[in-house]
Design a protein that fits this description.
Chain A: Pfam families: Na_H_Exchanger, TrkA_N. Chain A: Keywords: Membrane, Transmembrane, Transmembrane helix, Transport. Chain A: GO terms for molecular function: antiporter activity. The complex is a heterodimer of chains A (about 575) and B (about 550). With about 575 residues, chain A is mainly alpha-helical. Chain A folds into two domains: about 375 residues, Up-down Bundle (Na+/H+ antiporter like fold), CATH 1.20.1530.20; about 140 residues, NAD(P)-binding Rossmann-like Domain (Rossmann fold), CATH 3.40.50. Chain A has 25 helices and six strands. The radius of gyration of chain A is 27 Å and the shape is elongated. By secondary structure, chain B is mainly alpha-helical. Chain B has two domains: about 375 residues, Na+/H+ antiporter like fold, CATH 1.20.1530.20; about 120 residues, Rossmann fold. In chain B, strand 3, helix 20 and strand 4 form a beta-alpha-beta unit. Chain B is globular. Chains A and B meet through helix 1, helix 3, helix 9, helix 10 and helix 12 of A and helix 1, helix 3, helix 10, helix 12 and helix 19 of B.
Chain lengths: ~575, ~550
Amino acid sequence: MSLGGIALATDFALLIVAATVLSYAARLTKQPTIVAYVLTGVVVGPIGLGIVAEDQLIEIVSELGLGFLLFLLGIEMRFDDIREIVRPVGAIAVGQAILQAIASTAVALLLGFTVFQSLMIALATTFGATPIIVKVLGDKDDLKTLYGKTDVGILIFQDIYLVMALAILSVGAVDDLGEIAFSIGRVFVLMGAIGVVAYLASRYFLPALLRASAANKSTLFTVGIAWAFLFIFAAETLELSVEIGAFLAGLALAQLPYSTELKERMRPATNFFIAVFFASIALQMEVDQLLVYWQEALVAAVVLIVVNFFIVFGLFYSQRFDVETSFLGTISMLQVSEFSLVLGALAVDQGFVEEGILGFLSLMALITMPISTYYVLYNRRIYAAVEPYLQRLEREDTVQAQPVEFEDHAVIVGYSRLTAELADVLENAVEEVVFVEDRAEYVEELGDAEYGFIFGNARHGDVRQEANVSGADVVVSAAERTDVNLRLVEDAPDALTIVAATTDEEASLLYEHGADYVVEGRGLVAEELVELLERLDDPDAFERRLASLNDRARNGSPRTAADAPTGGETDV
Amino acid sequence: MYEVLFALTVIFCLAGALLLVAAERGLPVIPFYLLAGILAGFVIDETALLDLAQWGIVFLVFLFGVHVDLEAVRSQGRVSTAVGTVQASLIGALGFGAGLAFGLDPLNAVYFGVAGALSSSLVATSYLDERTGARPTYERLAESIHFTEDVLGVLVVLALSAFVYAEEPAVEQFAVAAGMIALALGVRYLLFHRLTARLRGVPEVMMLVGISFVIGFIALAEAAALSIVVGAFAAGIAIADDYPHSLELVDTIDDLEDFFTPIFFVTVGALLSIPTLETVGYTIALVVAVLVLNPLVVAFVLVRSGFDGRTSILAGLTLDQVSAFTLFVAIEALVAETIARSLFDAIVLAAAVTMIVATYTGRHAGSIARWLRDRGLVRVLGESLEDRATVARNLDDHVIVVDFQHGGRQVLEACSRLDRPVLVVEDNPTVLEAISEECDNYVYGDVLNDRVWDLARLEHAAAVVSLTPERDRTETVVDLETDVPRIVRVDGTDAATEFVERGAAGVIYPDAIAAERVGDDLEALLSGDVSREEFTRRGQAHFETPSEPGER
């Protein structure tokens, strides 16, 4: 043992620093960070500068990253989100998987790959890239549009497909056909067993467990991680792939109210680890392995983008989506996904294919992802350009966009006496009132109330997005952190914003950033006291005033008899 | 892979289970992590985790650096710096002497002294959670004393790395470290905002920038043969934690820290071995030093520098636990193989014991202070009042306002319009100047002290308004034996009912008051009675202080 523990990890450090620099550059060019990560491995690994080699720490962290990535994927699988469009989405997803697999296999065969290699390539290239679709559409505020929801729905179906593929690949290379069947059967039985455990846990055990852990900021996170590790470890022990264990662990948590907050808390660690994973892919590759099929990769990228466009567009159209939705939904999906690399890396590990195929997949990802970012970014402009040609496809009776979950609503951050009373006032003025609260003691109360409820901390972008803060009519926040309130005010520039502050400086700052009304407890209390003390010389009036003050303090809101929480928020 | 995965699974499952117990009872988490470590020690080989544990140290110290509020320290740190330094050097010297007397070699005696002297709970625990505005004087005071001690902790680590762990002990190390801190400050004020301006809304890249800072500064530290702790601290200083970085960078790194914290503390626990008699002896000595001597010394120095007895004792009581920095020092020493195994065990045990006891004393600090006052301790420490009270000789029919900081100032300003004399009772000497500017009558002191009420001419007062958020002070005000109506602040309906029954003439529940006023304004807006501009104007009117009409 020596103090040089971290010094030994120079490789790791260099990798992180390089990833930071490149992802900074990616940000400036609006590229998804994943492209930067993959490039990081290319630049610092044996292909480029050759200053970083894969060491044990990198290996562990990237393995963890993959596990966590699948865990988050599982958590994000909220069936409620796609229930209303599940039928068309399912049809598109299944059709796309089959048709694209056929097309990819054909293209790969034509390019001279062996049958086995072609099947591998087909298996790996049928996914849409979540980081691009979710990130770019999220930035464009398009996730709640019909095409955005459909794409996200398709991605969810693809996750299931991915887990199956992982399960099959994890069997490893075996020769005998009977053995293969046995191994695949074993994998699915074990997966099923873990799945049953996960399902039972999510019904009977996890709600109480998470409710208890949500009481403390670190506990929820630690318990969540422990849960993930338990499944990852079980999968590893049973010689399944750790990704499957992680995915099922996440799935068990997904339908619980705590999932968004937990997901957001896990995201930084996952992002950090996953950056290492993607960067490490190219670390194992030599130049010739990456470039051995570069011509094929170029051709395949172009051909598959074109062919897949027609496949997906046709599927969308056949499910009675209108032309615009079909077009926008289709071009978002046209790229090679990060999962291609996940599957490719696993296939190499298991000895199914050689490094060259992983290089081929990496190249395709590096070509299609950056390009697709731009056509997703400018999808509406592209559509405007091609619209005249597509016009004759227009028809009546298409799938209509369901109203998004929260619209023309009031978002209330923090449950307290103040916000409960304001909710009563607002109730009739807005479509819906949504509470955002991350203290566990109110979960049941808010879950039962007639209001919408999101468990989570408003500091997380995803929580604000889920509550659709930017589309809200009214935003009320009793959050103690001024930075959170500032962000809420900025997120909803047009909404009526009522936010709390403790000091005059904070209040001024919030007004400067556009808050409509700042609740500053000290000022309000002083006002009340002045009115009280004015009456000191008139004992009767003083008594009456005190009595009404005390009644208000002891009883709930006079606006309704409804139950108000008994804790205080406004600070004095 | 399998070993690491197994170790991580064991660590997180044990930590998760024990954290649930801790959360249930509201106990501090670190002792439970250590306990988890002791259990985990039976099944895992901790050397596999030392790498990750060092990352844990790095993140904890880094975060400490990030959260250092340089401006606040500059503005109110003088007293606390003195107090922290006096206490730490006194107990440190005593501990060093005691260590030598125990027969330890000088270096181990230093470790012993450090363990006894440094107290802090800031790293990894309460630092972020309790960022509420309504903080009593003693907490603010304690926070800056803790900060002083944490800085002393950094200095200790630095000194050890310069003189003990370095191959060639050298004073230049300090200059190098100072240079690194200067560089960090330069980055913070000149570069950081420019660098991150384009990363708004991309927490992912922000986080990587933060981690790269850590790695970069650690690399610098290693290149200069300094401890990585120094590098991590400098990296933290280099990062500004104001808005919007607080949301996108600092919170993200905090979440990451939650991953490494259990690993660090559980690993520490896993390194424990079965205690020998020697270990038990050291542990008892350390526990006595930390639980009894530290609070007493701090309380004594605070009283002598003008704080009232209650504030001094409460501030002292927050310091009755072994510092997380001590654990860093111990781990580094263990890795460098310079610490006696029994002493290492004693330090970890003492940390666990004191942290658990500290929860108890923290919860019952008010009654402990009262108990100590009744036993005459405050008098022994030398509390004095008279020189800090200014009361008009014939003050009559006045309103006594307890606690200037939590709304008292606004009441004062408002009362000046009412033509009613006001007297302020305050326990924070640092705001006395502000009080004396705004108000003719004030008494500095502790509400527990009857003398304070005599000086405040309670029997001649028209009303007492207590705005303190601290429950034990509120109770004291309600329980005063007098007919003067007492109006106290509460923070819930249950407390409101309780205090009215107990004799309070009135209760101020800020949230209920806010609900009424804001609710009225909102109703007026929604019903179309007022325009949106008028609504905003009403909101501003509530916080415009009457005496400063021009200021928004």
